[in-house]
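Field log, afternoon session.

UNIT: design team B
ACTIVITY: writing a sequence onto a fixed backbone
BACKBONE:
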């Protein structure tokens, strides 16, 4: 016997909302909008708007654990083989170089000691580049240089990062060094003072499209300091940017925990949008149910995502050991710890 799934998807949400206008699917696995002829164009639009509003109400209500996946950012190595000359217009000629082909497309910068760093706007070949905003003047004497990349787009679907980025484990002791999250202004000041490639110590996030540009959806990228001098993979916790579901991308995020909550949230949005029954209206039964169900789901997600250990004690006895179970009684003041508790 096949057991039916308890998880909601696009079809179940559409069909449940369609019941509100007296429309029923021929096949429960197919939504009535795709099936056609069951709801009007306006009713279909109202159903989809209620689903959109319902999903947003749930996703924005709490920092759900399932919206914080592990993500990776792969850095590019710096390049400094050979020497270069530069004319007054910023055209770079390499001597003994094989400039990387991704130099311009991957937000590359060229640095040389006297002039500073300039963005690479055009890759013309293994010995030819063009710099943007070049103001230093002609550099006719061959000089050493470095090309580096410190601006990396977040993975597709990721809106932002939470906490530090981590290097791969150290081969000797298994420890993972971190790249700290810094304020954007402070990190840019550091880049102005020192932009030689090295091992990144800090990052900040910046927005690619400013709010003043309404023609494109904004997205974020990571700025690293110092610019990476080698290729590596950094890992961190990201925050997912939720998207609308449809007949192809059927499954909402977090349905393992939120199926009933998502359904009630969409029905509550229908009450508000179409029936004009807001919270507090005695006839708004779904709005009344949504709040308690949401709180229940939050508590469940807290239990599922709670760590067993939230800290490590590093003492003078060599090594370190975990000492802070997440669920033991909490002492709010370190001075009040029992004598010998740390041991």
């Amino acid at each position: 016997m096949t057991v039916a799934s308890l998880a909601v998807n696009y079809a179940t949400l559409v069909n449940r909302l369609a019941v509100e206008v007296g429309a029923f699917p021929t096949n429960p696995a197919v939504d009535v909008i795709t099936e056609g002829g069951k709801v009007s164009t306006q009713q279909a639009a109202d159903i989809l708007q209620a689903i959109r509003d319902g999903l947003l109400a749930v996703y924005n209500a709490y920092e759900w654990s399932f919206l914080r996946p592990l993500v990776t950012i792969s850095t590019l190595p710096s390049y400094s083989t050979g020497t270069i000359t530069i004319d007054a217009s910023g055209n770079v000629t390499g001597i003994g170089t094989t400039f990387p082909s991704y130099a311009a497309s991957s937000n590359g910068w060229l640095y040389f000691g006297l002039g500073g760093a300039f963005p690479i706007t055009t890759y013309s070949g293994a010995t030819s580049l063009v710099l943007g905003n070049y103001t230093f003047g002609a550099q006719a004497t061959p000089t050493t240089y470095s090309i580096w990349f410190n601006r990396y787009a977040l993975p597709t679907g990721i809106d932002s990062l939470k906490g530090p980025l981590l290097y791969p484990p150290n081969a000797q002791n298994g420890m993972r060094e971190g790249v700290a999250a810094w304020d954007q202004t402070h990190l840019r000041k550091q880049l102005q003072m020192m932009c030689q490639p090295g091992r990144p110590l800090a990052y900040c996030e910046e927005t690619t499209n400013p709010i003043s540009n309404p023609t494109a959806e904004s997205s974020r990228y990571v700025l690293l300091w110092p610019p990476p001098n080698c290729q590596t993979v950094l890992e961190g916790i990201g925050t997912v940017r939720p998207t609308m579901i449809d007949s192809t991308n059927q499954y909402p995020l977090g349905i393992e925990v939120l199926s009933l909550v998502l359904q009630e949230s969409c029905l509550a949005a229908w009450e508000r949008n179409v029936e004009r029954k807001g919270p507090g209206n005695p006839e708004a039964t779904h709005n009344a149910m949504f709040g308690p169900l949401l709180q229940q789901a939050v508590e469940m997600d807290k239990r599922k995502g709670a760590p067993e250990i939230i800290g490590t004690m590093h003492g003078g006895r060599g090594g370190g050991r975990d000492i802070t179970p997440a669920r033991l009684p909490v002492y709010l003041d370190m001075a009040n710890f029992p004598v010998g508790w740390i041991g």
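LOG NOTE: The first strand starts at residue 70 and ends at 74.
NEXT ACTIVITY: expression trials, pending approval
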